[in-house]
């Protein structure tokens, strides 16, 4: 029999003992544990898309409502129809309210949208990579050591959810559909689990090098000391400080009270940001101006807003007259039921503006003005034009007053201006001369000649000033054609005639300006 040197046997024994010491002896993560982790990305992966969708929709809707407000204000300034003006004013108020509300919702959505997207992307990436690392390392079920256990604590290769978990990614497809209550509610995440003890113990499932029990400082060990480690933002806890290793998946389901995450939850930021994003409304938001106008015109509050405007602008008091006027505007300018907003939108499409913000001579339709900046320029033009009208009126009235002073005419001039026979003969101071071939044929009558002579004498006798023939007369003696009783005194009728003429001219002029 051949003898083996004792030294060689000692060497082999030492190697075997060392090899035995380096065998992995920690538990794998049980199927319920890693599946609970994988459920998180599955539940919240649409959050980035929800953030993008809500922010985009609200931003576009705010711009749409703002532009519609400006178009309605321009229409109110550019059109002369009172009913359309009142309707445009009311609809502009409501559109402005929607622009303000939508802008406020946008501001509210920004922080939770950014936070939810970042939190979701972060936790999804962490879990996916962690699970994929362990899955890749343990390869196939032919291997006797693994860190992810499947059914009956066997190798997890056959578990289909393991593959999908390691490949899960967040969705950036824009959506405004909120996360359903089956995924998130006032108590937390209903689709997830509460705390799970997740250390597997079956054959093969107790040989995970990452979770080795009772490690010591040794070059062949993954853990160099007994301690507690936490992974995946503390969702997973590994403790090898005792006689055996424990693996715990923190509570994922009941993390909130009355819609607010508890401060000790590792999913607090994710939960609070998702709940806040879910609460931001987008239902009233529209990025189509025509549809938004029709929605506003059909709003039940239009009638009340219209009555308020009519009270302020037209001075109507609450009552039947106010209601009738409001209904008239609704019928003539706003429209009802499925026709609500149609007439106003057509006027926006068909009404040209008096000022082109692009600087050329064409007059674009209100609907063709593309930017808010250009709409503001057009509206500013109308506002400044309207503001300058009082000074224009003052200057024109002064000029008119001076003109009227120079328009005092003699009786002969008055007769000459009458071209027709009947009105000429109706004036006692004039007569129509049929025998005369050339114009003027309306001449002074005998009475007119006498009055003219008398008027001339009165003018010369008063240093060029018309004699006040009626001043001081009693009411019984104050008779036409020279005099007329007005109030408590007798006044010259020619003065009253000139005054009435001047007032009628002023009234007509003011009406023309406005």
Automatic annotation (TrEMBL):
The lineage of its organism: Eukaryota, Discoba, Euglenozoa, Kinetoplastea, Metakinetoplastina. This is Variant surface glycoprotein 1125.150. The keyword Signal applies. It is found in: Cell membrane. One of its GO terms (cellular component) is side of membrane. SUPFAM superfamilies: Variant surface glycoprotein (N-terminal domain), Variant surface glycoprotein MITAT 1.2, VSG 221, C-terminal domain. It comes from Trypanosoma brucei. InterPro entries: Trypano_VSG_A_N_dom, Variant_surf_glycoprt_trypan_C, VSG_C_dom_sf. It holds the Pfam family Trypan_glycop. VSG forms a coat on the surface of the parasite. The trypanosome evades the immune response of the host by expressing a series of antigenically distinct VSGs from an estimated 1000 VSG genes. Its main location: membrane.
